Amino acid sequence: MFEILEKKSLNPTVTLMKIYAPRVARKAEPGQFIILRTDSEGERIPLTVADYDREKGTITIIFQIVGGTTEKLNHMNEGDCLQDFVGPLGRPTETEGLKKVAVVGGGVGCAIAYPVAKKLHELGVEVHSIVGFRNKDLVILEDEFRAASSKFVLMSDDGTAGEKGLVTDALKKLIESGEKYDRVITIGPLIMMKFVCRLTKEYEIPTVASMNPIMIDGTGMCGGCRLTVGGETKFACVDGPEFDGHLIDFDEAMARGAMYKPFERHAYEEACNLFKEVK
């Protein structure tokens, strides 16, 4: 069984958990993900590996409470065990040959961006991290990013944390100040990644975007996570989750993601009502 060793609230809707999963921790790398079930009747949901400790055999996951399963997961506590915890899945972030990289994260996507920044930093790469949130109450992993970055820029929509503005504003400012990046890696809301990739295309900077569409089996068989990249159909679970950001059809990805929002909301409300009845 996969025991929850640590649980911590990062903000009102985002929770961090450390799970005892030594076989997964032994091989996990930044950019990869796991699929878990809370119980034998639960649905399978993918969550990115936010960190790992090979010696202690732990995997850190960070999740936002948006649907029924994340609501159930958030009601679990230290000492409880998950039914399934499968991974690592997907392709790790490619790091070979990089000397200077900008890592651009947005919202809960920063939980995915952080292990990438940390790995690059450990390899001696000059890392410039740009992270953005709606306001100061939603900021996560600020200290961790600072420790893993040669340069760190915090942005917020309303100016209550760091500088006021969008991550694209900060990235453009750095590029125009003379910073030359081997690669930009962006992870966050689709609309944010779309505009980051549009900006870097203007400056001809190679850019990778981490895609996290709806996923079921994690092996490429169900087709739920399909994307169009460079005019070809790709599957985020086996071909990604990272792709050339200049080739991704973001509009199609956003349209597909929006299809499931009503179902996600309904499942969340059902789970909330269930826990109310238990109380």
Quick recap:
With 279 residues, the protein is an alpha/beta fold. Helices cover 31% and strands 32% of the residues.
Structure description:
It is a single chain. The protein is of the alpha/beta class and 279 residues long. Helices cover 31% and strands 32% of the residues. The protein contains nine helices and 16 strands. Strand 4 (45-53) and strand 5 (58-64) form a beta hairpin. The mean pLDDT is 90.
So what's the overall shape? globular
Helix-strand category: alpha/beta
Overall residue-averaged pLDDT value: 90
Which blocks of ≥5 consecutive residues have pLDDT under 50? Answer: none
Order of helices and strands: EEHEEEHEEEHEHEEHEHEEEHEHH
Strand order in the largest sheet: 6-1-2-5-4-3-7
Q: Determine the N-to-C terminus distance.
A: 27 Å
Beta-strand proportion:
25-35%
- How many strands, what sense, and barrel or not for the largest sheet? 7 strands, antiparallel
How many beta-strand segments?
Answer: 16
> What radius of gyration results from the CA coordinates?
18 Å
Helix content: 25-40%
The count of helical stretches stands at 9
Topology record:
Elements lengths: L1 E10 L2 E7 L1 H6 L5 E5 L7 E9 L4 E7 L3 H7 L6 E2 L1 E6 L10 E7 L3 H13 L3 E8 L8 H6 L3 E6 L6 E2 L2 H10 L6 E5 L2 H13 L4 E4 L15 E4 L2 E4 H4 L2 E3 L5 H9 L2 H18 L1
Parallel strand pairs: 8-9, 8-12, 9-10, 10-11, 12-13
Antiparallel strand pairs: 1-2, 1-6, 2-5, 3-4, 3-7, 4-5, 13-16, 14-15
Helix pairs in contact: 2-9, 5-6, 6-8
